[in-house]
Amino acid sequence: IERGDQVVAFDTPFGRVGVAICYDLRFPELFRAMGPLDLLVLPAAFTETTGRAQREMLLRARAIENQCYVLASAQGGLHPTGRMTHGNSMIIDPWGDVLARMDKGEGVVVAEFDPQRISDTRASLPALKHRIL
To answer: Which of 1, 6, 57, 88 is deepest in the core (most CB within 10 A)?
Structure first.
């Protein structure tokens, strides 16, 4: 396992997407370096202990402070090595509301991507425009 050396964000027909992994979630400055985003994609394999204690809180914070959707897929369950991962895949909207969730196991989490929700959130709380650093 090695750390990356690039900030990864790209434009798509529906908006700008930023990509990172689970441990990156702890570094909000990484997501600021991506510029204004419409969607963050954050796959994870959090341990049960840290996942239960911190993952949702950090994911919701990243959605709120970047005023974008967060798609957070996650491994969950007992692995052959004995390692327990937390799971809890989620889709979170720009206001920090969890729109869909799946605790553990195989499956799909689906929610509507609404560009107007991003615009409305940014208009009602223009925090991204007020940044000075």
So the answer is: 88
